[in-house]
Amino acid sequence: MFNEIYELVTGPLAWIGWGIFLLGSVYKLASLWSLAKKKDTSSIYYTKAKFGLRSIAQWSLPFGTLGWRETPSVTVVTFVFHICLILVPIFLSAHVILWEEWFGVSIPALPNHVADVMTLLVIAGGTFFAWRRFSVPEVAFVTSGHDWFVLGVVVAPFLTGFLAYHQIFNYEVMIVLHVITGIAWLALIPFTRLSHMLVSWYSRAYIGSEFQGVRHCKDW
Amino acid sequence: MKKPVFDRKIEDIGLETGTSRLTPEKIQETIQNVLASETGAKLKVYHDTCVRCGLCSKACHYYVSHDGDPTYSPVGKVVQTMAVMIDKKGKVDADFIYRAAQIAYTECNLCRRCIHYCPLGIDTGYIMSMVRRICHKLGVTPQYIQDTAHSHSATMNQMWVKDDEWIDSLLWQEEEARDEFPDMRIPLDKEGADIMYSVIAPEPKFRTHLIYQAGAIMHEAGADWTMPTLHGWDNSDMAMFSGDFEIMGRLKRDHFERAQKLKVNRIVMGECGHAFRSVYDQGNRWLGWADYPVEVVHSVEYFADLLRTGKIKMAQKVKGPITIQDPCNIIRGRGLMEDLRYVAHAIADEVIEMTPSLEHNYCCAAGGGVINCGPPFKNVRVNGNKAKADQLRRVKEQGVDLCLCPCHNCHGGLEDIIHSNELGIDLKFIGDIIYANMVKTKAVEE
Amino acid sequence: MSEKTGWNWESGEKTVQDLSKTSEEVRWLEEWHASPDGEKIACVACTDDAEFSFVVNGEVMENRFEKAICPKFTPDGRLAALVSLDMEWTVAEDGNAWEETYGFLWDMQFGNGSLSVGVQQDMQYGMVVNGTIWDELFENANSFALSPCGKHSAAAVQVQALAQADIFTFQDGVFSLAVDGKVWDMRAMNFWTPVFSNEGGHVACQARKSLYDYTIAVDGKFWSKDFACVWEPSFNPADGSVVAPVRMNGKWGMAKDGEILWQPQFTQLWQQQYSQDGKTLWAICSPKYGKFTVCRDAKPWDCGYLSVTDLSVSPDGNRAAAVGRTPDKGYNVIVDGTAWNGRYDMIWKPIFSDNGSNVAVKVKKGERYNVLVDGKACKEDFDMVFDPVFSPDGTSVLIKGIQGGVYKRIVAPVADFRKEA
């Protein structure tokens, strides 16, 4: 029974998840681009790689911008959270095996204890963000169900993965839940606020170009 | 957590009458129409990707001044306006529109300070200006700014100044100035001059001495300049802020075409912020001009050039320290901070900077059309800018009695803040100080 | 164009006036203006404290005024200016003031021997044409126009006073259009830029019926359709129909008598101009954001500029010329879709010869002026030059220029323009 379910979620379901993620992302980017070409011609006109990259570089620097400096706790957590969030799923040794199996690519893996700590950091970061959504008035005021859902989607695979790895609760249930939430995480990227992963590069580059190119002023 | 309620409705005949004429169908149709035909990927991306982190809150002087009231944060304002309009596909009621209009027109100066705070690069100023656009399309606009937009459309200036009153003001100031500079002219309609000098309508209406001073400085500098007798002389554009983009475009076309017809090399504009925004950022874009069709030089740049090249020399500098108000639309909007610093140091002994300053400076809370919404909303901007009062108080404690303030809106806003907080700081345009303290080689001997 | 047949078109150069020799009674001279035929050079002169006169070909005119502004030569060669005495304003022609005086005058226009000017009299507004003030004056008036035939005048007028910040009365419509002082029945928020048909019998203007509805009004009737925005209309000289750029769904097209003529496809479209036979319609357009050019019957030229101005169409409508602003803040002359060599700091409106085969243009580079014909310069440049004029047969160009303090009138054969610009 477990094996069948496991096969199903890591087999067809995973492929569907990847498919939704990839096709959804392409659709999202293509439809936004075509809409922008129709409705935002002046915005496209001013967007320049030089300014965009400069802006992205500056904002990739912790405390490199006014915004990052003003709320240091959020800055630290945001950077740690996102770095771990991206690195762990890619370089986790168990996943590295999957990449080899699925795509035939082999990449180095993170030592398990490092990945373990990073996973905990993601969970801790998620907890911090959840705390903010509850307790910090300017965040609570703007938080809706969607934000909780997204936060849950993001943290769930890490939580279930951690529990599964440490065999806390039922391993078989956890690992299946881990795979399902992981797939959901992927598949939902193009259709939720997680899409900032896809498009905020461009919105950053755009506003950076507006500021540096048109307004002769830094955007950080 | 219990969500705060919006309990600060302000009576305004424009908003009241406008909302009383709305029907649910009209609201929905109008919102959907604007969203479908006038907004695109930009708004969609902002709406879809904002992760509601609240980092932008501290950027906003309204939020800071209201002790962290989340309804004043940039994202808080989006959540109370555009986000609902999009999510509910325009199914909102007239009370909602009233609130949205009040927030968008009077609780956001479109100063774009929050850009420095948003990691995702979301332009809340743009979102708020689209809320204003929707409110304009619904006919729900504050009375006074709407009246200004009407004046723009009827007279091509923002103060109902009639054609003859404009020319008469110029001739009057020229005549006054000739007592001091016997052969000073304000050359009218001089085709092929180097400079067309343009102002905003409050200058001929209330602050004619600014035209005198500009004339005196141009004269002393030996500039080849002119002022037009016909419409197009006013560079201001409150239609840009009321959401009436059609009139915004009409005004900018009129302004630039006047300069094109006069065949001037460049337009020098008086010390105004929003008018500058309308020529390099918004009005020009609506018309399809990616950049100036005629070079525009802001007074700050022009004065810096006159002082650098020695065309104007200061006979004396201001004694004692001064501070600088960095107007959003020329600093964060156009990067003139260095020129402004150059000028400040050239005309004053000592400059003490406000904190924050330069492109991170707080808005005056009068900009973005807020002061033009008139007396009903005066307290909104005064109480909404304790942050500015604190900034000013800190420099006052360091001995500053004078604030250099190269923007009309900043003047209006800061004047009220200084008065209501009894700060005792004098506000001056750069032109005031240069005129008063420059070497006057062409003036009559006293 | 009939005036110029009587001018002296004999090739050669004539010194009209040495401008350095000014009378001692003059304190300062203002901007120079050359008469259309080039025979006169004139300007306003300050003769004493608050005392002004005119200097024409070196002679200071007899009459003195407290103020004298906006001098212009009429097409038939009179020097007209707005002058003030005892706080009253009037027009002076060749230095002689009209008998009637007014509260204020501005915006002089000329048409077929007529002179019109906007007027304020006892705080009421209207127009004065050839010394006759409109029968009815208004709360305000602007956007003045004089018909090409010189017989009719029009302006946007405010027919009722507005209380301070009375936005609703304004939206109900307190503006209208007055033609020869008679106001149309219709009211709207705004009326702008009245234009007359060639023979002067018809008037069209932009109108804004509500905050959002723009249209064209012709002879007191709105077009049946409204648009998101419109620009100034023009009459087809052949059949009297009216065209105007109109905005729909964020794009500009051209409408004719209220119906779409060119599909809305442009980022910008304005300053349309018909050929004399009314068969060809030219306009300045922007086919995409940031690129301006010229189009003929909705087909744009390939070239693109930051902005394009001064569209000039040859009389037969087959050729056009304009001025384009380059990214380096200079200007190019564009003729038939191709730029002439040479970037200038300023370029004036190109002029076609009557047969349409040659183009002349006044240009400025640094502080030096010149006249180009078909892309070539004449041998000398000037401290100052006035608008060039083609001879009626198109074989010569009249150049009016100031060089070294001397004003000269030069008739140069087109063949003399040989210097690479």
List keywords for this structure.
heterotrimer, B: 446 residues, alpha/beta, Fumarate Reductase Iron-sulfur Protein, Chain B, domain 2, Rossmann fold, 3 domains, four-stranded parallel sheet, C: 421 residues, mainly beta, Methylamine Dehydrogenase, Chain H, six-stranded antiparallel sheet, five-stranded antiparallel sheet, 1% helix, 53% strand, globular
Low-confidence stretches of chain C: none
Question: Into which percent range does the helicity of residues of chain B fall?
Answer: 40-55%
Counted beta strands of chain C = 45
In what range is the share of β-strand residues of chain B? 5-15%
SS-derived structural category of chain C: mainly beta
Strand content of chain C: over 45%
Task: Classify the oligomer.
Answer: heterotrimer
The Rg value of chain C, from CA coordinates, equals 23 Å
Q: State the distance separating the first and last CA atoms of chain B.
A: 71 Å
The biggest beta sheet of chain B is recorded as: 4 strands, parallel
Largest sheet of chain C: 6 strands, antiparallel
Q: Gap between N and C termini of chain C, in Å?
A: 28 Å
CATH class category label of the domain at 223-343 in chain C: Mainly Beta
Strand line-up across the major sheet of chain B: 2-1-3-4
Structural overview:
The complex is a heterotrimer of chains A (220), B (446) and C (421). Chain A is mostly helical and 220 residues long. Chain A has eleven helices and no strands. In chain A, helix 1 runs parallel beside helix 10, helix 3 packs across helix 11 and helix 7 packs antiparallel against helix 9 (145-165). Chain B has three domains: 13-141, Fumarate Reductase Iron-sulfur Protein, Chain B, domain 2 (Orthogonal Bundle), CATH 1.10.1060; 153-306, no CATH class; 314-437, Rossmann fold. Chain B has 21 helices and eight strands. Chain B has helices spanning 13-20, 24-37, 41-49, 61-65, 74-80, 82-87, 94-106, 124-138, 143-155, 163-180, 202-205, 208-221, 239-242, 245-262, 274-287, 299-308, 337-347, 378-383, 386-397, 408-420, 430-437; strands at 195-198, 225-226, 266-269, 295-298, 318-324, 348-351, 402-404, 426-428. Chain B has a four-stranded parallel sheet with strand order 2-1-3-4. In chain B, strands 6-5-7-8 form a four-stranded parallel sheet, sandwiched between helices. The longest helix of chain B has 18 residues, at 163-180. The termini of chain B are far apart. Chain C has 421 residues and is an all-beta fold. Chain C has a domain at 223-343: 7 Propeller (Methylamine Dehydrogenase, Chain H), CATH 2.130.10.150. Chain C has one helix and 45 strands. In chain C, strands 36, 37, 38, 39, 40 and 45 form a six-stranded antiparallel sheet that branches. In chain C, strands 1, 41, 42, 43 and 44 form a five-stranded antiparallel sheet that branches. In chain C, strand 42 (389-390) and strand 43 form a beta hairpin. Chain C is globular and about 60 Å long. In chain C, 48% of the residues are buried. Classes of the chains: A mainly alpha (220), B alpha/beta (446), C mainly beta (421).
